[in-house]
């Protein structure tokens, strides 16, 4: 305690703090050049900058841990995220890399050292294409655990049991999102490792909840963000060991029904493990805190639109129309009516606003000469990322005649990933497909291939039948191309189950008009007032 407060005082008083802001945010990144700056007295800085630093220092609560300030707060302020243009085709070029494309202040949530440490495991989410093995192999192995053929036999019973419990009559009239979050980790761990209820240790529940809270509040200066960030760090090693042991149970046949978990497919299809080691499976299991946390803002977005008071009349009418028909029958089309409805919900809700990429200073290869920082050996460059937008791309009039209409049928007129072939690429005007079309055959007993479209979009072909996604830039909520979300169809299936239940049990969402609704962190960058509940009459 004493040591920390001394360190903290030094940080706040010294020129190092000023330089922390101006120069080396994190000591791992520091070089001789940063150090030279660190040694310069703060008083030598231009007055305007010093004043800004003073204001910044004053904003940092004095009880914050020294490492947290240095590795999370300062990088947060030194990070820039730039806007990319809206893509015309559903692709992101490989020069915008996924390699370590995580806002720098968040590394401390997933690694002990607050920085990329690939030797301790990686997630495909933060890997450049060139690191994933031939033809995006790592992504294909990941995808083997979430192809849509698995949903009905393996995952749906878990989801349906979860929803039944969630929307049991005794929970009617209560704030819904707090209640959802109280149960959510039962489903999360059941899907990943087949563990639920009391078998999930307290630490594992707490780290998940804290992780979501940090993502939701996001601003590292808030005490709630700080406290939860530190809880995540406290339990990270415990969590990893716990997951590792559960994976042993799956591998040794000690776990029951392990083929009903995503991890089983990842372990089975990892081959020699070179591109998906066991430590990577551990990493994926908890990095998915980020991925599945988006189910929270999705569910809230859907409830709000279906709500009896203040809902969206077009969405409500479309729901009535969809569910009054044969909603699970695709009738030869690539998607069922219910699937189309859920896709359209995701287009308009867009729970994930954009795909971020890491970028590098391109001055050497451009008209503008070399990077001055590089040429004098002072790496003043900060963490910069580029954001390829989803919401505005989905709403772009270039892609749809009527982008603001709620129209699930729109996807029947645009290509699926199975239709983006060499011929189609030529028809569009390209000389060849941007990505070779290749296959990865799974080794888990199914007759399934993980293939890709000419745009790089990965999808499954099971028992000779393609299970494609909509491969059109105007459908952006799950990203684009080789790096598009593998959890898309699982997510759509989960929300189909949600809506089937809402329809079957005549569930209605209503505002509760509570005098002081609770603030609930429901997803990345999303803290809401929890004032919606449900009633049911079946
Ligand atoms: C509402 C739910 C979800 C949304 C909106 C969503 C959205 C996205 C988006 C936009 C991307 C692309 C990011 C980029 O290119 O930078 C992505 C990637 C990814 N998602 Fe999801 N996701 C969801 C659920 C899931 C689920 C349930 C899983 C796992 C079961 C998952 C696993 C992943 C992974 C591993 C990637 C990285 C793919 C790659 O880089 O090749 N996501 N997701």
Counting DSSP E segments of at least 2 residues, the number of strands comes to 11
Q: Which class of secondary structure composition applies to the elements?
A: alpha+beta
CATH architecture label of the largest domain: Orthogonal Bundle
The CATH class of the largest domain, by name, is Mainly Alpha
Oligomer: single chain
Total domain count: 2
What hetero molecules are bound to the protein chains? protoporphyrin IX containing FE
Mean pLDDT: 91
The rough form would be described as globular
Percentage beta strand: 5-15%
Give me the strand/helix succession: HHHHHEHHHHHHHHHHEHEHHEEEEHEEEE
* Rg computed from alpha carbons, rounded to a whole number of angstroms: 24 Å
Low-confidence stretches: 1-41
Helix content: 40-55%
Number of helices, counting only DSSP H or I runs of 4 residues or more: 19
Q: What gap, in angstroms, lies between the N and C termini?
A: 57 Å
In short:
This protein is α+β, with helices and mostly antiparallel strands. It has helices at 2-13, 15-22, 32-39, 47-59, 66-77, 107-110, 137-143, 151-166, 176-193, 202-217, 223-251, 262-269, 278-306, 313-324, 337-349, 372-375, 391-394, 422-428, 488-504, and strands at residues 80-83, 354-358, 384-389, 440-441, 448-452, 458-462, 465-467, 507-511, 519-523, 526-529, 532-536. A hairpin with a 2-residue loop joins strand 9 and strand 10 (526-529).
